Amino acid sequence: MLRYLRLERAAASRWMPFAIVLGGVVAVACAPVDPVEEPAPAATQEAAEQVAETPDTAAPVEETPASNTPLKTNQAGLDIIKEAEGLRLEAYLEGSTWLIGYGHSRTAKEGMTITEAEAEQLLREDLLVTEQAVARIVTVPLNENQFSALVSLCYNIGARNFERSTVVAALNQGDYQGAADAFPNHARARVEGELVQLPGLVARRAKERDLFLKPVQMALREQG
Question: Can you give the pTM of this predicted structure?
Fold first, then answer.
């Protein structure tokens, strides 16, 4: 008579031993057994499902650029703009553009006249737009003097030219000294179809550069 004795299977083995008792003699043999696949833990399954549901084209998280929005043009920057632009209460033609007040062009037209108070109001409105442009275009932190110098430059050459300027190219790479040294590159204007360096622009760029490099603490002490 044959009797089969079941032996415990080793956890890491693919072979199951069994014994046959025959006439008092025990014979041990092994037979192959398919491995049992353990179910994945619930947490692992859940994580796998979440990965599967996440699209491959998920947009990368972008770093927030430094914000210069709270900054405003200080008195030193305002003085440069007013002195360089000059005050004209009657509309005048510069190239093919009508200007009035402190270089205001948006609403200027032939024959237009304004008061000094209206010129101040137009300048404030124009500066607000220019300040917003500088805050948007420049992606590195600025102090009050740097911001004001850049506003003067942008007010003079326009936001589009400012964005493409060598000043901004250096500045947005974190090269503040290189940005300061690039101010003189923008001292030319088109005269009779030709780009010519103008003494007035050379002087303005020099003042803007000096203000850009001037420590804010020094400016505060002088004002006090």
Answer: 0.68
